[in-house]
Amino acid sequence: MKFGVIVFPGSNCDLDAFYMVKDVLNKPVEYLWHHEKTLRGSDCVILPGGFTYGDYLRPGAIASFSPIMTAVHAFAARGGLVLGICNGFQVLLESGLLPGALYRNIHLQFRCAWTHLSVENPHLPFTAHIPSGQVLKIPVAHGDGNYFCDPETLETLKKNNQIVFRYVTPEGNLDSRANPNGSLEAIAGICNARGNVLGMMPHPERAGESLLGSRDGQFIFQSILKHWGESS
Amino acid sequence: MSEQLHQKMGLSDQEYALILHLMGREPNELELGMFSVMWSEHCSYKCSKKVLQSLPTEGDQILLGPGENAGIVDIGEGLAVAFKMESHNHPSAIEPYQGAATGVGGIVRDIFTMGARPIALLNSLRFGPLHYPRVQYLFEGVVAGIAGYGNCIGIPTVGGETWFDPAYQGNPLVNVMCAGVLPASRIARGQARGPGNTVILVGARTGRDGLHGVTFASEELDETSEAQRPAVQVGDPFMEKLLLEACLEAIEKELVAGIQDLGGAGLTCATSEMSSRAGSGMIIHLDRVPCREEDMSPYEIMLSESQERMLLVVENENIKAVQDIFTRWGLEFSAIGQVTGDGLLQIYHRGEKVGELAADFLCENAPVYDLPDQEPPYYQKLKSYDMQAVPQPDDLEEAFLELLASPNIASKQWIYRQYDYMVRTCTAQGPGGDAAVLRIRGTAKGLAFSADGNGRYVYLDPYKGGMIAVLEAARNVAAAGAKPLAITNCLNFGNPTRPQIYWQFKHAVKGMAEACRALGTPVTGGNVSFYNETSGEAIFPTPVVGMLGLLENLSCQVQKGWRRASDRVYLLGDLAGSLAGSEYLYALHGVLAGDMPLPDLERAAFLHQFLGEAAASKVITSAHDLSDGGLLTALAEASFAGGFGVEISLPHPENVRLDELLFGEGQSRVLVGVSLEKERDFLTLIRSYQLPWQLLGEVKGEKLTVRIQEEEPLIDLSLERVKAAWEEVISCCLD
Fold first, then answer.
1. For A112, which of B153, B417, B441 is closest by C-beta distance?
2. What Rg, from alpha-carbon coordinates, does chain B have?
3. Which positions in chain B touch A177 (Cβ < 8 Å)?
4. DSSP character for A115?
5. Percent helix, strand and coil across chain A, each rounded to 5?
6. Is B372 exposed, middle or buried (0-12, 13-18, 19+ CB in 10 A)?
7. What is the value of pTM for the model shown?
């Protein structure tokens, strides 16, 4: 299984996603430049975190028009696995691959902190091999992670099981103090109706090694590999 | 014409006379402007150079000392570290967000200019007391500016320190440090080598912002400083990120003969310094400089401090390849001139020569001053202060909680949670530790960084205070298990032409020099920031030291938090500290006075060596440096970080006050945790060093308990309560 990590101007977690795949999972991975027209045969494409185009206009807004996004749309429509992390999530929202929007954090500050996530939909390619009931310790680092959508969209998300992760306490309980940005219903990540496009604000690629404080991010990547019929 | 003009530009009459002598004629306005910015204190170090010469700059590990954009230190396996610290105090006092943001931008450019990939940012900040609305505005703006810029370019802000004191009320300090890693064999240089090579300007367009920024930075602040807002530049971190990637790509492909960032004094500084270092000259065509506005004058183009610009010198056969890289990153690229062999800067505009002068006039020939110094009257007075006048607290528990709630001691989480300290996934110890620790991918090594300075100590005794700044920074990296290798520094002082300020400066540098020699940590460069005064009031003399340490094996890294209940708690170094200059004395009694003991440099070197050996042989489970707030504060911090309580029992030496024992401060003191299994090995090792040490107690439960020998506890508080006093102090001050 081969991963592709898109590099937009201003991406800065491209390297972290790259090394997560290369050094931690020991799987093939390559960078995909935003001008490219294909995904060069990637089986899973990662839109990494960062500040594409400096977050000018709105986070993710300009990058959503990059040439490579046409290929990402087509890939997603064929059922390809797309993972947008942080700014990558913002790009997926701006490009219409996922519904809703990310507002400024409710306290108006950038927040870099460890968060804990409950797995709300454990039946996805991204989550199927997370042990049942496991709370994931994964960090956030963003200024615009306050998820919002209209009531109808929220209803649809719930009906289709599209809410994938929520911010919870280490014990797994909902608590406003565990929500780092004021997200609607503590939403930390959502997927499309088909379940092959995941967007999340927390950074699983920063939680791959105990040296960094947690290995829980591996559960998500291992799920992807196992979905593909591989193990690392 | 120039008589008033040179004064307006900040040049003295003697300096103008020297210019006439060098030029052999009257300079025109452009030339005079170039002299004015290059001979400003900020660029020329004219008032500090003589004193700085006493700092040690050599050592086996030093690949490049002061003089280039950043110093470079060998860390083995063919790798090197470029690191430097710089101040952005004046701009931040006027426009805190942009002032701090462009400070980060500037120091990052200094690092990648050397061909190093930036891996870490740190900062050292000083503000007035937080209850003043203006101070809150400055504080919140500076933190947001550092966050806004550093987060966007994707370099983790991994550590730093922040201090509050009325001395910094009108003149905050914003010192930022950056470190990068590069192959030792591929150091890029800020030199215009090879006559005939092309001079290329890349990055942002040149605008009218930041004209005379360096001149502004070389004056005192006063009521009229607000009008200097246009001298503060505006940062574009996105542009910087592109520039960083493109420049590193060009350097990695060995397409660049010379490179320098445009910071203070803009194009004037970059062209003259690059030429002067290489003994070459340049012909520059200002019409080819991409400008933001039409009709910018030669003066404006040469003096603009627009951010995110780099000057490259490229051999002609490589121009196409370099251009391709910059175009790919969407950056503007403009060949603006040529390197010459005659040592002259020749500036052309619209077909006419508008300026001509030797590059050396601006750099090598800048004046150097030896200023008069005089011991200030406060010095002896505060030294001889009678500590008996300070009452001992009736309730030590209350005193302890009050001390922890001082913003200088309290948790700085409000600050660092706004910084992305994890990006690049190399941060093994982020903010809140004694030192920041990062892995170096592809090796077993780790780097440790610390930024430290205590202006209060330096005010009381510049010589000892200068030493302490070095010792404290070294001790922090040593506590992490790293070997202190070298320092960069930022020397923040008042107006050097006042003899009492110059006295502080001279003595502080002397103390730093002695400590650096004793520890074997040479100075690789840094920055001097004078004129930190508001309406005649100088800040505390504040040298800040940025220390680089090396862990040969990252897996031996030590952290400050207790690791396990039942671990033994040992104190290395003196049992009691001193109240002189302590946070306790100031925060609880409002007194700034006393005579700090002269630090024992040899002992410090032994201690750091011991810590490295103890970490490498894994006989300690934790280590935490004692600094502001003394023993009790350090115990509490180790408990917060580890999540365990601690129970200790202290001897009570005669002639030592209880508050001195619990809250006194001193050098070369470290708390270590030792597991029962390793206690024998630990004792064997510590006995082989000439260091005082003692067993204090053990890691235990969820309380902080301190007693004198077997007596009833002096302090017996739940960790929860102690933590509550310390944790949200800064947010509360801002509400």
1. B417
2. 26
3. none
4. E
5. 30, 25, 45
6. exposed
7. 0.96
Chain A residues within an 8 Å CB radius of B144: 109
Q: Is A91 helix (H, G, I), strand (E, B) or coil?
A: helix
Kindly report the three-state secondary structure assignment for every residue of B362-431: HCCCCCCCCCCCCCCCHHHHHHCCCHHHCCCCCCHHHHHHHHHCCCCCCCCHHHHCCCCCCCCCCEEECC
How far apart, in whole angstroms, are the C-alpha atoms of residue B422 and residue A16?
10
Query: Position of tokens 């807002």?
Result: B229
| CA dist., res. B281 & res. B358, Å (int) | 8
| C-alpha distances out from residue B244 to B175, B236, B248, B635, Å | 21, 12, 6, 42
Place of tokens 């701009």: B91
Amino acid at A155: E
The secondary structure of residue A135, as a DSSP letter, is P
* Beta-carbon-side half-sphere exposure of residue A168 (alpha carbons within 13 Å): 18
Contacts of B541 by beta carbon, 8 Å cutoff, 6+ apart: B455, B458, B459, B462, B465, B492, B493, B494, B501, B504, B505, B508
DSSP assigned state of A28: -
**Which residue reads 């107006």 in tokens?**
B495
Query: Residue type at B435?
Result: A
Q: How far is B126 from chain A (nearest CA, A)?
A: 21
Residue of B nearest to A109 (CA): B418
Binned average pLDDT, 10 residues per bin, chain B of 735 residues: 76 95 96 95 92 96 93 98 96 95 96 97 98 97 98 97 96 98 96 96 90 69 69 87 97 97 92 96 97 93 93 97 96 96 97 96 95 97 96 96 98 98 98 97 97 97 98 98 98 96 98 98 96 93 98 98 97 96 98 97 98 98 97 98 97 94 97 98 97 97 96 96 96 91
* Residue B340, min C-alpha distance to chain A (Å): 36
Which among B151, B238, B330 is the nearest to A56, CB-wise?
A: B238
b/e sequence A23-47, b meaning 16+ C-beta within 10 Å: ebbebebebbebebeebeebbbbbb
Residue A102: both structure tokens together: 């990310």
SS (H, E, C) A150-213: CHHHHHHHHHCCCEEEEEECCCCCCCHHHCCCCCHHHEEEEECCCCCEEEECCCHHHCCEHHHC
List CB contacts (< 8 A) between B441 and chain A.
19
Indicate the burial class of A170 (C-beta count within 10 angstroms; 0-12, 13-18, 19 or more): exposed
Structure tokens at A232: 């690392």
Task: From residue B324, give the alpha-carbon distance in Å to each of A126, B200, B319, B416.
Answer: 39, 13, 9, 39
The amino acid present at B79, given as its one-letter code, is L
Best A206, A211, A212, A214 member to test B by mutation, with max B CBs in 10 Å, is A211
Beta strands in B456-584 (DSSP E): 483-492, 523-529, 533-534, 537-538, 542-551, 568-572
Is the ipTM, as predicted for this complex, more than 0.95?
yes
Structure tokens at B197: 């090579």
> Residues of B with catalytic annotation?
42, 88
